[in-house]
Structures are given as structure tokens and as C-alpha cells.
Amino acid sequence: MDTVTTVNVNGLRAAAKKGYGPWLAATEADVVCLQEVRAEPHQLPEEIRDPDGWHAVYAPSAAKGRAGVALLTRREPDAVRVGFGVPEFAESGRYVEADLPGLTVASLYLPSGEVGTERQTEKESFLAAFLPYLRDLRKRSADQGREVLVCGDWNIAHQEADLKNWRANRKAAGFLPEERAWMSQVLDPDDGGFVDVVRALHPDATGPYSWWSYRGRAFDNDSGWRIDYAMATPGLARRAVKAYVERAATHTDRWSDHAPVTVTFDVR
């Protein structure tokens, strides 16, 4: 694997009508991680469900029309696992991982949450369950001589540089102190031990943002959030040579409210 792209498609059937297909046909990625697919595989057009040149794995949500993640790989995976061993989220359509030679790659759709609602309670439960899994995944993979890459919509802006209007969002889901602290644990070398590859390559940048609301002129004003991440184990992160957001040229060119985030590694 040299290049991986992650993107929240905001409904794959809708994205397919707006330009996802031509984008996928043109991408040079070896792995594509999709989130918020919002469809069972049989509901997708055949050319989208099983695109030429790809091995596709889907993990739909038991809640119809919600969530759903997928992995597209040029090479057939050696193994695939849906979920992360916690019954509460086994059929939530929020996590799928695949083994490739020397690498475990995953697509994650972390709950977005909403302060004061059950959605935030769900998010808090997910965070509490997922961090121990990340710790264990890193340790198991290290013992096996494997690297790990967890890509997706993490629905948390970790730093002030990760969203335009951070002052106005200090009490909003996605930028709450406790959520940011959890992300710090994921990235702590002595805890989760993962590396935010985009930030590592662009330590002083504002953004680059990967999500813009469809409301108002958020995209045109670049009033966005950086919530789509490629989180790698340190050995793989050190091999990252390029990371960028595939931001659409204009608002009308968008096929999702997120933009693809692409990272290239030198693995030779």
C-alpha cells in the first residue's frame, strides 16, 4: 500500500449521483475508506457496490439509513473484521478493519454526538469502549510486526487549528474539552500511541479542513472543521511523505459535505 484515502460520503447512493463514481475511477489510492454509507450493499448500484479493480467490504448499520462504513482495497484482504468486540456497537456500522501484508487498515465512523441528548451519551459510550481497543490493537499488531492505520470521520476537532470558529464551538459536540482530551489520549505515545499523520506533516497549518456545513457559505468562506483523520502507528507514520485534502474547486463540484483526505507513504 502506498496511498490511502478516507472520505465520509454522506450517503453513498447520493454521492454516486453527484460525482463519486468518476472520482473513484480517477483516484490513485490503493485503499479507500468510506464512512456514512447509509445503505445495505444490495441497495447500491452494481458499479458502485463492486467497482472494477477493487475488493469491497461493507459494514452496514442495523439502523436503516444510518452510519455504515466500507473498505475498498486494490489487493484482496487476508482477513476482514467488523466491529471491535463490543456488543453494543457490533452492528452499528461504525468500524471495519482488514489485514493487508504487514498492515491492518480500518475505516471508522465515530458518533457525532449532540450535547444534552442520547446521541452524546452514545458518543461517550463509544469513546470509552474504543480507546481500550485501540491500545490493544496497537500492542497486538506490534507483537506481530504489523503496522496499523485507522482512517475515518472521528467527529472530533482536536486543536483550535482544526476548526475555523473554535471560540463559538467550545461547548459544541466535536470540540468539547472531554472529547479533545480523549483524542489526546489516542495520540499520547504512552497511551494510545497513534500519530495524526496529516498534522505531523503540517504541524503549523490551520486545518486543512475536511468538512464544511451545507448551510450558508461555509465552504466558500472555508469555515470548516478538520475531523477526518488518518491515525497511524509510529513506524508507518514515519513513512508518510504527503498528506492533503482533495477540496472541490467549487461548492457545486462537491459530492459530499466532506472532502477526501489522502495520505501517501513511502513503503518501498
Automatic annotation (TrEMBL):
Occurrences of domain Endonuclease/exonuclease/phosphatase (ranges): 6-258
EC number: 3.1.11.2
Matches recorded under Pfam families: Exo_endo_phos
GO molecular function: double-stranded DNA 3'-5' DNA exonuclease activity
InterPro entries registered for this protein in UniProt: AP_endonuc_1, Endo/exonu/phosph_ase_sf, Endo/exonuclease/phosphatase, ExoIII-like
Swiss-Prot/TrEMBL keywords: Hydrolase, Magnesium, Metal-binding
Tagged with keyword Isomerase: no
Cofactor section: Mg(2+)
Domain of life: Bacteria
Gene3D superfamilies xrefs: Endonuclease/exonuclease/phosphatase
NCBIfam families referenced in this protein's UniProt entry, alphabetically: exoDNase_III, xth
Family to which the UniProt record says this protein belongs: Belongs to the DNA repair enzymes AP/ExoA family.
Name assigned to this protein: Exodeoxyribonuclease III
